[in-house]
Structure formats: C-alpha cells, structure tokens
Specification:
The chain is an alpha+beta fold and 193 residues long. It is built from 4 helices and 13 strands. It has a 5-stranded mixed beta sheet with strand order 1-2-8-13-6, with no helix packed on it. A 4-stranded antiparallel beta sheet has the order 5-4-10-11, with no helix packed on it. Strand 4 and strand 5 form a beta hairpin. The chain is globular. The N terminus is likely disordered.
Length: 193
C-alpha cells in the first residue's frame, strides 16, 4: 500500500529532488507491479498446494476444470505466465494438444504477474470440447509445473470424481485440444468474460 502524500506545508520543507522522488514512488512505477516494488520473489512449487475445484457451470459441450493453487508459505510470492500441463492415465502421458489462450470458457487475457498472499489462492482453468464418440483414454491425473521450470519440477494431483476426468477424443479431434488459462488472481478472471 502506498502512503498518502504529505501536506503542502511539508513539500516546501523538502528539497525538490526528494519531493519529486516521493511523488514518483507514490504514483507507482509505470509497467512495474506492486510485487516487484516490494521485491517479492517468484513462487516455488514446494510452497503451493494444488486442489481441484470449485465446479464450474459450463457452456453446452464444454468440459471445464478449475485448479486452485494455495500459497502455504509464510510470505507472498508471485506467479506469472502459463503453467505447464501434462494429463495422464495409468499408462502414462496422454498426447493432448495444450493451447494457451481463450476459448468458450477460458479467458483470452494475456498473462500478468499475480501476487499470491500467504494462505491465499490463485487459479488456472482448463477446458476442452466434449468427445461426442466417447473418450478413451481419460486423464485421471494432472501434473502442473511453473513457467521455465524443468519438467521434473511439477506437482501431480488426482482428478476426482470420475465426471471431472478429461477425455482424449483422438488425434486431430477438437476435443483433444485443452485450452489453459494463465495464472489468475481469482476464478472469475480465469474464465472467459
């Protein structure tokens, strides 16, 4: 939070350079987030607890899954960009096409830095079109990694219940493309609006 500007009488007592510096800081640095101003570090995967939900009321034909990431660390941290996503069944990784960008359910907003306070959540939403002929296999686990982190650094969570599994339709089928939102500060921001 930025302090209020001092009263006019105080301005006269300050050297001009110091007064200008205060105004510059109080107004915020152009293109710089509050997290950067405070020197907040990027989130580490080890401090984030993953969860599925809440459930989303979907448009017809859509299959949407919300992923909640809670900062379990003692201090705020920053997430920026798109997560890396792998969807798997018991046999291994399923070859979904992962698409960064909007669709009927997922926001088309560009990524931005998201400050995640201690014990607060950020969200990612995944969506794909249903498989009209039935999907085999179906993803039962989701692995999520942070941008620019090695593939080995990911957290895996089971997708439950069965109705939330993500069906793989077939190569080239539009239902085998999964749209993924960037990290967003709340669920509403991760959804198309």
């Amino acid at each position: 939070m930025v302090a209020d500007a001092p009263p006019a009488a105080v301005w006269r007592a300050w050297p001009p350079a110091l007064a200008c510096g205060f105004l510059f800081l109080a107004s915020g640095l152009p293109g710089v987030s509050k997290a950067q101003e405070l020197g907040t570090r990027g989130c580490r995967l080890s401090q984030l607890a993953l969860g599925i939900g809440p459930w989303i009321s979907e448009a017809t034909g859509q299959h949407t899954l919300a992923v909640r990431l809670v900062n379990r660390g003692p201090t705020p941290c920053v997430l920026d960009g798109y997560p890396t996503i792998r969807l798997s069944d018991r046999a291994g990784t399923i070859p979904f096409v992962i698409r960064h960008g909007g669709d009927q359910m997922v926001t088309s907003d560009r990524p931005r830095r998201v400050l995640v306070g201690s014990s607060h959540a950020t969200f990612v939403v995944l969506n794909h079109y249903r498989c009209d002929l039935g999907g085999i296999p179906a993803a039962r686990t989701l692995s999520l990694g942070l941008p620019h982190a090695p593939r080995a650094q990911s957290a895996t969570i089971a997708i439950r219940p069965r109705q939330r599994w993500i069906d793989y339709c077939d190569k080239g089928d539009r239902g085998s493309t999964v749209s993924v939102s960037p990290f967003e500060p709340n669920l509403r921001a991760a959804l198309e609006h």
